[in-house]
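Exercise 7. Given the components listed, write out the predicted structure of the assembled complex. Treat all entries as one system.
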Amino acid sequence: MIFREKIVEKILLFCAGIAVLGVAIIGIFIFREGWPVISNTGIIGFVLGKDWAPTQGIYGIFPMILGSMYVTLGALMIGVPIGIGCAVYLAEIASQRLSTIIKPGIELLAGIPSVIYGLYGMTVIVPIIRDLFNNQGFSVLAGSIVLGIMILPTIINISKDSIEAVPKEYKEGSLALGSSHWQAIIKVVLPAARSGIISSIILGMGRAIGETMAVIMITGNSTLIPESILSPVRTLTGNIGIEMGYASGEHQKALFATGIVLFVFIMVLNLLAKLIPNKVGE
Amino acid sequence: MNEIKNVRHSRIKERLAFYLLCVFSILTIIVLALIVSDILVKGLPHISFNFLLEEPRKMGKAGGIFSVIVSTFYIVVLSVVFAAPIGIAASVYLTEYAKEGPVLRIIRYGIEALAGVPSIIYGLFGYSFFVVFLGLKYSILSGALTLTLMILPTIVRTSEEAIKAVPSSYREGSLALGATKLQTIRKIVIPTAMPGILTGLILGIGRVVGESAAVIYTAGSSLGVPDSILRPGRTLSVHLFTLASEGLSAENTYATAVVLITLVLIINFIANTLINKIFIARRR
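Answer.
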């Protein structure tokens, strides 16, 4: 009996370990396929190279790195203020009735597939930008708007949880000293919840950098370095997503190499999110 | 005098700030409503039984989406069948057996990292590992195995929460009656945590249905009805992506989008109902 229980425990441990195994094997296979191209081109040449011409064997992904950065920054500029504002409202101010409408809405926003966001961006937001600015419409701006919406649920949910986790005494103390509700939120509650809010922003950033299909459908995917927020742009994910369909040989390996850069970006972000102390006030 | 002015001033500031936050929150809902209604308005007129039950013709330009629905169904079922036992077992280990220490830390880090990996990386990995290295080719099986890894973190986290919420008096009662730890887990802990575990599975299904980047390079985008899990297939999301990005047929694009969004709505509704049930049960 005890022997059987021991065996079951080992099986359960193995199942829990599959996640670790999964990450390791994903890392190994992406590196195995992509590393030859990076070592041929040289890390600097690959990461800072301004030209992407697979037919001539030239692989530089600097425009895509910039592209991912621009689109992600744009998404944060839209998603962070709205997301944190919404989180504060839901956690501190909203009436019971209003939050029973808003909360399921946010869950749904999180559940909408990225292709739907892409379709909406492509057929509604891109034409609006095209009409407003007289350009092709597919642009950094379009990507930022759609990604800004897509990261809202991540930012709202995690920020809201961390705001709600601030001990009531903090706020009550502030109110008792004569501050208004708003002053208490700004000066006491938000600073106390800041670690959770920061990790919500980092995780939102991870989602924006990693998004693929929606971005392909709305950013125009040019391999040139974007000149303004109205220029078309290609992200790291877009580079892989578009060309994976027909690439072969060294070209395909170069896409895996792009994947390595993306993988490293994401892992660094994850690590950053973990390094933030999660206790209130530390 | 000055103090009264200050107080009044801060009152006005507070009002304004609260209004702004309220606008932000309502904006979120308006955006959601805009997206959903845009898709429904443009797509609902093109939905019919024929659209659901006919095979796609001319690369999806004409005809329906029957084979796409079948492929989606296969991939959903397979990935949940793979991921559910592993995920539940992992969460049982994490809650009932694991002790604080390096092993637990590594496992937790692994689960978080897996949750953060972008779907296109899953696509690359699935292609190089399942499709090429294991020789499974573009197939329903390759797609499902890739997605299994992808939804594992969702299932583990939700099940873990559910198992943690089972009162320890339940376990103690069972152990006091002479049951072993394993019997307690099987007969008491898991059944009590079932609604929460199911929520995790349903959220996993939602991710599978919505996923495109990880599926297109593992399950392929063949339009035929797959006659075995070793054959390629095209899921709803992949079909929608292909139709939209190639500008093949606006009617079929939006009709497919309606089917996809309806599925997501249903899945969300079920998950929400389950979550509410758990809360009500807990309050009692």
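Discussion: Residues 68 and 239 of chain B are 7 Å apart (CA to CA). The mean pLDDT of chain B is 91.
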